[in-house]
Amino acid sequence: QSALTQPASVSGSPGQSITISCTGTSSDIGGYNYVSWYQQHPGKAPKLMIYDVSNRPSGVSDRFSGSKSGNTASLSISGLQAEDGANYYCSSYTSGSVVFGGGTKLTVL
Amino acid sequence: EVQLVESGGGLVQRGGSLRLSCATSGFTFSKYSMNWVRQAPGKGLEWLSYISSSSTTMYYADSVKGRLTISRDNAKRSLYLQMNNLRAEDTAVYYCAKGYYYDTISAFDIWGQGTMVTVSS
Q: What's the pLDDT tens digit per position in B12-28?
């Protein structure tokens, strides 16, 4: 159950688009369409942003989108807003367990 | 309003035990899987355990297998985590999290505010 690999940080200016990658293996991301993405502001509980690779829960802005290619999943955010600045975590199902990525800090410049 | 409220955290000595609880409201608890996830200070999220809606299936992370036991009481709408033989590296905020749909293990849509567990050496 090794952690998924995410960049430690990404940044972008308001209105721009960014993408956060999440790399795993054929045993997790590559083997199942069960990738989720969470947003976490400091001191707060995580919030589900994307589930099952590319689906948005009700109430999540359509500026957020998810995709997957092989063993790598991606979260894209378009039209960056100040409130998007947070930590983002990916996760994947893997044979009877769940593995998270190390997290990516998004800074909106 | 859908709500999860954890309790039972605190300061415990190395080797000790704690039982965390998660009280739920605002949704049909008995229809959804539940999970425990923790976050060490300044660190990322770590999934710990899953229990299906009817308690027929439980999963654990390798790092805690044998020391943690997940359970639920659908009549009381509550989730539990029994933690034994605690170690310093178990120090973290512990969250309960609801499965987004039915017995999914892959997505958690509602999270509690967390309860802090501190293990002293």
A: 999 999 999 999 999 99
Nearest residue in B to A34, CA atom: B106
Other residues' Cβ atoms within 10 Å of the Cβ of residue A91: 30
Residue A58 predicted with pLDDT over 90: yes
DSSP structure string for B3-64: EEEEE--EEEETT--EEEEEEEESS-GGGS-EEEEEE-TTS-EEEEEEE-TTSS-EEE-TTT
Put simply, the answer to whether B95 touches A1 (Cβ < 8 Å) is no
pLDDT digits (tens, 9 = 90+) for A5-27: 999 999 999 999 999 999 999 99
Token pair, residue B80, equals: 């539990």
Residue in chain A nearest B108 by alpha carbon: A48
Cross-chain Cβ contact B47/A100 below 8 Å: yes
Cα separation, A30 vs A13, in Å, equals 32
pLDDT (tens digit per residue) in B31-54: 999 999 999 999 999 999 999 999
Could you tell me which chain A residue has the CA closest to the CA of B42?
A42
Interface test with B, best of A97, A100, A105 (most B CBs within 10 A): A97
Pairing between strand A104-108 and A9-12? parallel
| Total count of residues recorded for chain B | 121
